[in-house]
Specification:
Blueprint (H helix, E strand, L loop, with lengths): L14 H7 L8 E3 L5 H7 L16 E3 L4 H13 L3 E5 L18 E5 L6 E4 L4 E5 L4 H11 L3 E2 L10 H6 L7 H4 L6 E7 L5 E2 L1 H4 L1 H7 L9 E8 L1 E2 L4 E9 L4 H11 L7 E8 L2 E8 L3 H11 L11 E3 L1 H10 L18 E9 L5 H10 L7 E6 L3 H4 L15 E9 L6 H14 L24 E2 L2 E2 L1 H12 L3 H11 L17
Parallel strand pairs: 2-4, 3-4
Antiparallel strand pairs: 1-2, 5-6, 6-10, 7-11, 8-9, 8-10, 12-14, 12-15, 13-14, 13-17, 16-18, 17-18, 19-20
Helix pairs in contact: 1-3, 4-11
Bound molecules: dihydroflavine-adenine dinucleotide.
Dihydroflavine-adenine dinucleotide binds next to strand 3, helix 5 and strand 10.
């Protein structure tokens, strides 16, 4: 291991680092700021367009490894020559921390977009997936090998496996199978000494921490072994819109009491926007079985045969985010068509929100700059896993998660949507979880707090401010684990887990 004195937060772009790296990594995989490919590689997976700006603090080098040894060499050379690295898999970080720094800092980025293999063992129903793969590539490979298997992770196909699994990761199968992190059974990680570890050699605390404790903090996860899950030959999707004028508020009021206790085969989420609510469902079965279930548990929604879209599970994975005309091949498209500037926040609701408050929420949704509220019900599997089984603590007692999505398309400076998101968040405070007010780590929000660095180490007390919101009682164990595996705080960003050194 290297002495802490070798590190510096503001090391100059240094030739020592490059000469060190060139011994182990082919030059075509190293991109300095003046190289021709630098700009297009940096921008390739910037998903929040507001960071495409001259003011953004960008890396001095981008390394695009094709094998684990290149990552090991990058970490070893970075430590030796005092250059920090950030890692990017799919670039979906809402605050862009995988490819930019919020403060002036000299750093390199390890971009994993060339490490995207998925290797499936159909018999064992497991897969090894590289961090640089996007979720769509994983879903596609699994279904192609065995249509009776799937994997529970996020809804958007272009999300990177690396960051997503690191923060938990959930989508339409969360009630049946929990988070992506809950279904990880082994991993390969490059630690702060540049050593490649697997579950056995890293030990259980380390393995626990990487399955939900957030990206960047514990090393660079090269690949993950996951347990695949059974899916039926046919699933049913519906997307039903109801306006406020058609009773949307009564329906949402009922939904919040029903959706978290439905059978685990059924997930009904809501997207509330302007004066509309879209009830979007995935049912692991046919319409014939879904209709009587809806008639007995949530008749007010009035689901009919013609609302049902039956399809193989893999088709539903394309249908839900991309619409009816999407094909399974679209899951492999790595070019995101999302060109939005965005600000995102999240909440957890534990007690039903009073009906009159839903009315007020809809007045908020009609204000200038208003965004969307996406509400995912919990209950069933995600809630039955103990709170400390992985760092993701949002389990028993949670009715639903809210994501506040504010976006704009470059008009103006985004002041109105950004302000709306903060005002909306302030309005919701009395109606959501308290002490701490919980938030989901993968919906990163720097308004919750950022680390203070003292003596070249992020402080535990500054980390607690945001960290207990994402991780509740698991934050301390994460910080103790960080102290064991990376006491010098080599892997860090504005919201990385600080080492608890005492
Ligand atoms: P990115 O590459 O930006 O990494 C995110 C963080 O993890 C960074 O701190 C990065 O340094 C670190 N990291 C990345 N790769 C790593 C690795 N190999 N080892 C260690 N650390 C690593 N979430 C959800 O749960 N369900 C959903 O349905 C959605 N939907 C969604 C849609 C859209 C359009 C966006 C932009 C985001 C979501 N998300 C989501 C949130 C998403 O899960 C979250 O942003 C993930 O961290 C993204 O992972 P990426 O690898 O793409 O991001």
């Amino acid at each position: 291991s290297y002495p802490p004195s070798a590190m510096s937060t503001a090391a100059p772009a240094n030739n020592g680092f490059l000469s060190c790296l060139i011994k182990s990594v082919p030059p075509r995989l190293l991109h300095g700021k003046s190289s021709r490919a630098y700009g297009s590689i940096w921008e390739s997976t910037v998903r929040n367009v507001k960071f495409v700006s001259d003011k953004t603090v960008k890396p001095v080098y981008i390394i695009t490894p094709t094998e684990a040894a290149h990552i090991q060499a990058t970490v070893a050379c970075g430590r030796k020559h005092g250059l920090r690295v950030r890692v990017r898999s799919g670039g979906h970080d809402y605050e862009g921390l995988s490819y930019r720094s919020a403060k002036p800092e000299t750093f390199a980025v390890v971009d994993l977009s060339m490490m995207r293999q998925v290797r499936i063992d159909g018999k064992a129903a497991t897969a090894w997936v590289d961090s640089g793969a996007q979720l769509g590539e994983l879903y596609y490979a699994v279904a192609k090998m065995t249509p009776s298997l799937g994997f529970p992770a996020g809804v958007c196909a272009t999300i990177g496996v690396g960051g997503h699994f690191s923060g938990g990761g959930f989508g339409m199968l969360l009630r049946k199978y929990g988070t992506a992190g809950d279904n990880v059974i082994d991993a390969k990680v490059v630690d702060a000494n540049g050593t490649l570890l697997d579950r056995k050699s890293m030990g259980e605390d380390y393995f626990w921490a990487i399955r939900g404790g957030g990206g960047e903090s514990f090393g660079i996860v090269v690949s993950w072994q996951v347990q695949l899950v059974p899916v039926p030959p046919k699933v049913t999707v519906f997307q039903i819109h109801r306006g406020v004028k058609d009773g949307a508020i009564d329906l949402i009021n009922k939904w919040q009491q029903v959706a978290p206790s439905l059978p685990d085969d059924l997930m009904i989420r809501i997207m509330a926007m302007e004066q509309d609510a879209m009830f979007e469902a995935l049912y692991l079965g046919t319409c014939k079985d879904l209709l009587p279930l809806m008639a007995s548990r949530f008749p007010e929604l009035g689901v009919k045969q013609e609302d049902c879209n039956e399809m193989p599970w893999i088709q539903s994975v394309a249908f839900i985010p991309m619409g009816k005309s999407a094909t399974v091949m679209d899951l492999l498209n790595r070019t995101s068509n999302i060109k939005a500037f965005g600000k995102y926040k999240s909440d957890y609701v534990k007690d039903p929100i009073p009906r009159d408050v839903w009315e007020k929420i809809y007045t908020w949704l009609a204000k200038p700059g208003a965004g969307v509220m996406i509400m995912d019900p919990y209950g069933a599997r995600i809630s039955s896993i103990p709170k400390d089984a992985t760092p993701f603590p949002h389990r028993q007692g949670v009715l639903f998660n809210i994501q506040y999505v504010s976006y704009w398309f470059g008009e103006g400076d985004g002041a109105a949507p950004t302000q709306w998101s903060r005002d909306m968040y302030a309005f919701m405070e009395p109606y959501v979880s308290k002490n701490p007010r919980q938030a989901y780590a993968n919906y990163r929000d720097l308004d919750l707090g950022v680390n203070e660095v003292v003596g070249d180490v992020s402080t535990y007390d500054s980390g607690r401010v945001w960290g207990e919101k994402y991780y509740n009682g698991n934050f301390e164990r994460l910080a103790r684990t960080k102290a064991k595996v990376d006491p010098c705080d080599y892997f860090r960003n504005e919201q990385s887990i600080p080492p608890l050194l005492k």
